[in-house]
Amino acid sequence: MAQHLALGAQGENLAADYLRTAGLDIIARNWRCRFGELDVIAREGGITAFIEVKTRRNLTCGRPEEAVTFLKQQRIRALARHWLHEHPSPFQRVRFDVVSIILRPGRPPEILHLKAAF
């Protein structure tokens, strides 16, 4: 597995564990359709959260959450619409979160959960 894919998978595992500990119910991970992939779909109370996970080893290219650009946000919203179409529920409330993870060697993971990030 390529290093960036392994880093992403490690980050997604850490994010899922963190979210479960924070009380969210994970509905799906790595949900795919022909248009792309959603990292994590979770429920918190009556809200369905579509969660993008970004993981970095350092801050050379900026903070992980900064990689969720406007274009990426638009893509996630479109994917969420597809998921909601496949999983209909009346009056479903949604939000879009970002989990930012920095994995520095010899340090504990730095995890930041940005609820309703966009």
Descriptors:
single chain, 118 residues, alpha+beta
The CATH architecture classification is 3-Layer(aba) Sandwich
Average residue pLDDT = 94
Q: Which stretches of 5+ consecutive residues score pLDDT under 50?
A: none
Supply Rg. 14 Å
Class inferred from helices and paired strands: alpha+beta
Number of helices: 2
CATH topology grouping = Trna Endonuclease, Chain: A, domain 1
Span between termini: 31 Å
Order of helices and strands: HEEEHEE
Report the major sheet: 5 strands, mixed
Total E-strand runs = 5
Number of domains: 1
Shape: globular
State the name of the first-level CATH class: Alpha Beta
Binned, the helix content reads: 25-40%
Structure description:
With 118 residues, the chain is an alpha+beta fold. The protein has one domain: 3-Layer(aba) Sandwich (Trna Endonuclease, Chain: A, domain 1). It has helices spanning 3-21, 70-86; strands at 25-33, 36-44, 47-56, 93-102, 110-114. It has a five-stranded mixed beta sheet, with helices on both faces. A hairpin with a 2-residue loop joins β2 and β3 (47-56). The longest helix has 19 residues, at 3-21.
